[in-house]
Amino acid sequence: MASINLIEAFQDFKDAENIDRPTMMKVVEDVFKTLLRKKYGTDDNFDVIVNAEKGDLEIVRHRTIVEDGEVEDPLAQVAYSEAIKLEPDYEVGEDLYEEIDLVDFGRRAILAAKQTLAGRISDLKKNVLAKKYEDRIGEIISAEVYQVWKKEILLLDEEGNELILPKSEQIPQDYFKKGENIRAVVTRVDLKNNNPVIILSRTSPDFLAKLLEIEVPEIFDGLITIRRIVREPGERAKVAVESYDDRIDPVGACVGMKGSRIHGIVRELKNENIDVINWTTNIQLLIQRSLTPAKITSMNLDQENKRASIFLKPDQVSLAIGKRGVNIKLASDLTEYELDVYRDTEEEDEEFDVDLEEFADEIDEWVIDALKKIGCDTARSVLRMSPTELEKRADLEKETVEDVRKILQEELERE
Q1: Do 375 and 361 belong to one domain?
Q2: pTM of the full predicted structure?
Q3: How many Å apart are CA 232 and CA 291, to the nearest integer?
Q4: Which residues lie below 8 Å from residue 235, measured CB to CB, with a gap of 6+?
Q5: Is residue 9 predicted with pLDDT exceeding 80?
Q6: For residue 6, is pLDDT > 60?
Q7: Same domain, 158 and 67
Q8: Per-residue pLDDT at 8
Q9: What SS3 state is found at 164?
Q10: Locate the S1 motif domain: which residues (predicted)?
Q11: How sure is the predictor about 375, in pLDDT bands with cuts at 50, 70 and 90?
């Protein structure tokens, strides 16, 4: 049709391969039927014929031919004398089909229609993109780094769609350069200014779960199930697994021969330590396993308040708590119990000791809390540790450690 060319608009449709043809045709038809209604008041006697391949369309008007002087509805009927001007063979009662030249609508109306069409195409693309990634939430995808910013990274998928990896969803040790391919899990699809924003994550437990599914065929096949995952991204993770087949050792299957299966995941997660344990409904046993590599001496459970008192030998306390308290925090998250660690002094010689709380008037409360978090709840338990170890484990200044040790030593010497 010479009056208007819509190749650019239709090309937008072709670029959006996920928009199906029926949807495309319906959108174009709706846009131009709106144009017809504005000009004629109705679109009942018009057909919009779209040729998506050539990038043009036709609008055909059909009216019934009636005797001269009997035209009651000019939009649906045409006089015989007018019809034979177009084709001498027409007869009364036949339908007259006439192509409408879009130039008759006026330049402004045509431009408005093209803009509306472009807007509808854009909205469809957004909807298709949002739906595509909403269906992929929880899946791992690979994308190319396009731009690195302070608070987030912009990535492009294989179709050129933009994806966002926020700083908060990156492992602390992550460092990426433009052009690099990275893997992450799709966590959600947000809307910003009516535009879909696909958010990825490398810190989500789902990312580790999917990596395990890729590396461990038994998980993919459903023979082993992941019951719970907790993570401190880049530092440590604990994974509780269970096997539905008694012949399969779930922990061994996940770790692999000489750690072959787990090593690849550890590298992907920037050397994050991964503890794989057998899941059990026996809460005492689960707590014991979750505190690995520490060995528990005894335990008191308060199931009503979901709290457990853990007793360990002095050399096991720091292992249970872990660096910066990460191990005990993850064990607590995994078991959903509040875990309190105590030194088991039953095997030690009975000797005078003083609870740290007794020094509240001389030692700041935050310092006492820091010491208790690393398992030092009495004066002797603090003095048994070297100053360097106290500085490192409790994250205290050298001067603070010296002052605390001096106060405790003087009290024990007085007794």
Answers
A1: yes
A2: 0.63
A3: 15
A4: 272, 273, 323, 326
A5: no
A6: no
A7: no
A8: 52
A9: strand
A10: 138-203
A11: confident
Residue 401 lies in a domain: yes
Together in a domain, 109 and 174:
no
CA dist 244 to 98, 213, 249, Å? 72, 16, 10
Q: Is 182 found in the same domain as 147?
A: yes
Q: Which two tokens stand for residue 326?
A: 């990460």
Which residues, including other chains, have CB under 8 Å from residue 132's CB and lie 6 or more apart? 18
- Bridge partners (DSSP) listed for residue 277: 240
Q: Beta-strand (E) ranges in 158-295?
A: 162-166, 181-192, 195-201, 224-232, 236-243, 273-278
Q: Are residues 114 and 144 in the same domain?
A: no
**d(C-alpha 207, C-alpha 213), whole Å:** 10
> How many structural domains compose the chain?
3
Q: Are residues 140 and 116 in the same domain?
A: no
- What sign does the CA torsion over 165, 167, 172, 177 have? positive
Domain holding 92, by residue range, is 7-132
State the burial class of residue 43 (Cβ atoms within 10 Å of its Cβ: 0-12, 13-18, 19+): buried
Q: Rounded distance, CA 210 to CA 164, Å?
A: 19
The answer to the question of residue 51 being in a domain is: yes
Across the strands, what pairs with 63? Answer: 96
Alpha-carbon gap, residue 152 to 174, rounded angstroms: 12
Spatial distance between the Cα atoms of 364 and 369, rounded to a whole number of angstroms: 9
CATH code at 397?
A: 1.10.150
Question: What CATH number is associated with residue 182?
Answer: 2.40.50.140
Buried b (16+ CB within 10 A) or exposed e, 222-237: ebbebbbbbbbbbbbb
The residues that bridge with 49 in the sheet, in sequence order, are 58
Q: DSSP letter at 291?
A: T
At 312-347, the pLDDT tens digits run: 888 788 888 888 889 999 999 999 999 998 887 654
Q: CA 57, 59, 64 angle in degrees (round to 5)?
A: 155
